[in-house]
Write a structure and sequence with these properties.
two-stranded antiparallel ribbon, 6 helices, about 10% strand
Length: about 110
Amino acid sequence: MVYHATPRPFPDWPFDGVEDWRSADRSRRDAYHEAERAASAQTVAGRTGIPVFKLTSNGPWLVGAQEIEEALGCYQGSSPSLRAELERDDLWVAWLDWLRQTVQHGGFTVR
């Protein structure tokens, strides 16, 4: 459901301070927000599921619907005996239910 990877760094703050941010052209602020959002949503090409760093470190990390669907698909592909064993834990069942619900909302944010 998850995979280990090293996250790429977030973009450096391109402003000289709060006043520079406030006075900056809208397109300059938007470009920074776009770069930050791309870093928050990063995945690793060729890997499926959710990168572990999104669940074990402070974000902001965006976990998208596709990542969640891949993770749930991996879980569904595991052996019935393993799923039965894991699903004896109410917290695990609640986690799976929550993941299924977040797909309907485009994913979730880890802060």
